[in-house]
Every structure is written in structure tokens, then in C-alpha cells.
Amino acid sequence: MFILSALLSMVCVFGAAYAWEPKCDSLGFQIIPKPDCSGYYLCVFGKPVPMPNCPPGSIFSNSAHVCVPENSIYDDCKDYNGGRPVIPDLGPLTVDEQCQINSNALIPHPTECQAYYNCSMVYKFIPRYFEQHLMECPYPEYFNAETKQCEHFENVKCGIRQAFKDGCDYRRNLCPVAHCVPCSVRMPSCEGKEDGIHANENRLWSPYHVMCYKDRFVSSDMCKADGNGRAQLFHPVKNQCVSLDEIPQEHGGMMPDCVGKKDGYYLDDFGRCDRYSVCKDGKYLNAVQCNAGEVFDAFTEKCLLKEKACGPCGDLSNC
Length: 319
Ligand SMILES: *[C@@H]1O[C@H](CO)[C@@H](O)[C@H](O)[C@H]1NC(C)=O
What we know:
Strand 2 and strand 3 (47-50) form a beta hairpin. The radius of gyration is 36 Å and the shape is elongated. It folds into four domains: 2-79, no CATH class; 95-173, Antimicrobial Protein, Tachycitin, Chain A; 188-255, no CATH class; 256-319, no CATH class. It is mainly beta. It has helices at 2-17, 95-101, 183-186; strands at 30-33, 40-44, 47-50, 58-60, 67-69, 106-108, 115-118, 134-136, 142-144, 149-151, 196-199, 208-213, 216-222, 232-235, 240-243, 264-267, 275-280, 283-289, 294-297, 302-305. The structure holds 2-acetamido-2-deoxy-beta-D-glucopyranose. Residues 106, 118, 120-121, 135, 149 line the site of 2-acetamido-2-deoxy-beta-D-glucopyranose (NAG). 2-acetamido-2-deoxy-beta-D-glucopyranose is lined by residues 106, 118, 120-121, 135, 149.
């Protein structure tokens, strides 16, 4: 900090050494900003007339010719030659050099919007994928270069810095050790997906599904048991949690197989008698629950009282 103020006072001394006089170019209307950006002169019949200065905390914009908040994005004072101390352009300095000038500096990473250097944070051991002073916003936040803090991604202008949407592009989410659950499994990419719930592509036909918002991963969740306490899996085509009865058998479910069967009602594949499956066009449509006390009769293809039913579920044997 001390070095910076020394630099600034030097510039001030030099700035003051050159006397500055406003000069009107013609007899017409003309605004001449003061070199220190505190206000302006108005040319009246070829004569510069000083106008009241901008209110405290604001400066006169050379380009917009109005008073604007000091150090805001509209503050263009340093872009113009004048007597106001010009803050040295720290761009070409290395991070270490910038931290020597200001040990509390927060410096946006030049190419990654989620990353920044925090000079007051000094690593004893630099984490894998990081460098000294490098920090990262929590996913999916970005570092706001104006407010110098991590903010909601929708409120940050990244400019030329790359704005990662995939959580696995954040360094902090990469595996810090050789053996860890890969990032793409922990936080699947939501890029190109609509807002809402989606299958976890690394765990298809499992209870896992993910929530996406604006191409960002929000959470990984699991299907809850259904109303009867039975497990459910996430169906990637139906895009919702369904009972095992709606999960094809090749994916670990108990969905009746209707392939090659004529349209009709069939005994349950898993031997449950209080219900039957409906097949149509070689596809399973749904299961129908019998009334209490009834079982499926394979011959009439109806639910009947057990003592009146035929087939494996009924009591009658000579049908
Ligand atoms: C910078 O690091 C200091 C010291 O670790 C910490 O207190 C501060 O919160 C950090 N600031 C940001 C924006 O990360």
C-alpha cells in the first residue's frame, strides 16, 4: 500500500507542475472537462466559465459529460490525459508483484470467471490444480471484478473471462487425489439441458437424478419410496421416478414383458395373483389390481374369487 501511495503522490507533484488553462475552440457551445475530473468549464462566447463541481463521490465523465459515481464503470477519468493521478496500469505485473504493492488485493483471474487471486490468502501447501493466492468461487458462482466478491452467476459480467457452466470445469471440483468419485458422477453436466429434473447419465436406471437450472447442475437427488413404501427408480424416458413395475426387467425392474404377446390380459410375470398385466401391440401398458379377495383367472382373463378361479392363482384345477 505504501509503495502505491508514494507512486500516486509523485504523479500528483508532476501533474501540478504543468499549469493548465481551459481553451475554448470557438464561439459556440463547448464543454471542457477539468483535468482532475472534478467538474467542467462551459464556453460562453469563447470564454471558459467554471461550473460548480460534481457532488462528492462523483466525477465528471469526459465522454458522457455528466457527473458519474467515482470508480464506477462510467468513471473514465483515468482514460484521459489530465492532471488527475493516473493509477498505474497493473496489467503486465505478475500476481506476486501486484500482491507486493497491495497485500490485500483481490485480482480477477485473467481467463477464468470463477477464479481470482486473493493476496491476503497465502497457501502453505498449494492445493492440486491451484497456484499461490488462487481462489475459486463456489460453483456455480462467479467472481465479480467490480464488487470483488463471488456472486450469483446471473449477476456477474464475465467479459472476456471464460464463464464455465459445468461444475467439473471448476478446479475445486476436480479430484484432489487419485482415487475419488469422478466429478462427472458427483455433479453431472447440465449444459444444453432444460431447467428441471434429468436422469443422471452416469447412473441410468438408478434412483439417482439431477436438477438443472440455466445449464448448471443444482443438486443430485434420489427417488423416494412410493406411497406403499416400495422403491422407485428414475426412468430416463418418462423423466420421473417410477415404481419397479414400470422399469424394464433388463434394467433391473419388474415391468412385465409383453414382447411377442397378443393383446390381452396376462398373469403377472413375478407370480403375484392379485393383479394382471395389460399388453397391447407387444408393449406393456399397465397393471390392474384385482378387488380385495379376488385373484386373476388365466382363462377368463378376469379377477375372480379365489375358489372360482382357474390357473395357477385359483383353487379350481379342471378348467
Ligand atoms: C481473502 O483471504 C482472506 C484471508 O484468508 C480472507 O479472510 C478473505 O475472506 C478472502 N477474501 C475473499 C474474497 O476470498
